[in-house]
Design goal:
It is a single chain. The chain folds into 2 domains: 99 residues, Rossmann fold; 108 residues, Rossmann fold. The protein has 219 residues and is an alpha/beta fold. It has a 6-stranded mixed sheet with strand order 3-8-7-4-5-6, with helices on both faces. Strands 2-1-9-10-11 form a 5-stranded parallel sheet, with helices on both faces.
Length: 219
């Protein structure tokens, strides 16, 4: 008997996101691989240049009363959230390494405050420091891995962050599943476990879903 492919999402999807999967004939399972805890922000001083590589960091600071002159961010969704909260976005890139390269090329003489999570990756701060760009870090949210053991395998797994992969693989093997990754940073974490990877061509949740649907419904 022909069984249709099943996709696992490592984060709970919104109704609109689920609609991209409805009527495709694909099976679908979702769970939260990680939880995010926003930390209380106590510094209220004005910041000249701030770096954001995730929407979680924006959520953590948006009601803090902090004044930020210039924001540098990764991803269109992070940019959108900053602008919705009346922050001025100067530069946007699709990944952390590209953002670091833009800063090195065009804003090298400025100093930066990087708002990040406790599991932040090294690419951006390392690149800036290697090129003598002054960068300080402030942890504004905590990512906690929620392990969940599945007693079945999936045809495709949707991954939205390196920590989501770490969480899933703490209890499960990726095995033959295709990993659909939101970007190259997530894909490089997936490469530790599989070569069967498809990277979204835009770093959005919707695009990850579309890649999986396209892959499994193509005739």
């Amino acid at each position: 008997m022909d069984t249709s492919p099943t996709i696992l999402s490592t984060k709970k999807l919104s109704t609109a996101q689920k609609e991209l999967l409805l009527n495709t004939g694909l099976g679908f399972v979702e769970y939260e691989a990680i939880t995010i805890e926003l930390l209380e922000i106590t510094n209220k001083h004005t910041i000249q240049n701030a770096i954001f590589t995730s929407k979680n960091a924006v959520k953590a600071i948006k009601n803090s009363g902090m004044v930020i002159s210039n924001c540098f961010c990764v991803g269109d969704n992070t940019k959108k959230l900053l602008e919705e909260n009346d922050f001025n976005v100067v530069e946007t890139a699709q990944n952390a390494s590209d953002l670091a390269k833009i800063i090195i090329k065009k804003h090298k003489n400025h100093s930066f405050l990087f708002f990040c999570g406790n599991l932040r990756r090294d690419e951006l701060p390392d690149l800036l420091k290697q090129n003598n760009v002054e960068v300080k870090e402030q942890i504004v949210y905590k990512t906690q891995l929620k392990s969940n053991k599945f007693i079945r395998s999936f045809d495709g797994i949707l991954f939205f962050s390196p920590s989501g992969i770490q969480s899933y693989t703490s209890e499960n093997k990726i095995g033959e599943s295709i990993s659909f990754c939101i970007g190259n940073t997530t894909a490089s974490e997936a490469k530790k476990h599989t070569n069967n990877i498809i990277v979204a061509n835009k770093p959005t949740v919707e695009n990850v879903i579309v890649q999986a649907v396209k892959h499994f419904t193509k005739k």
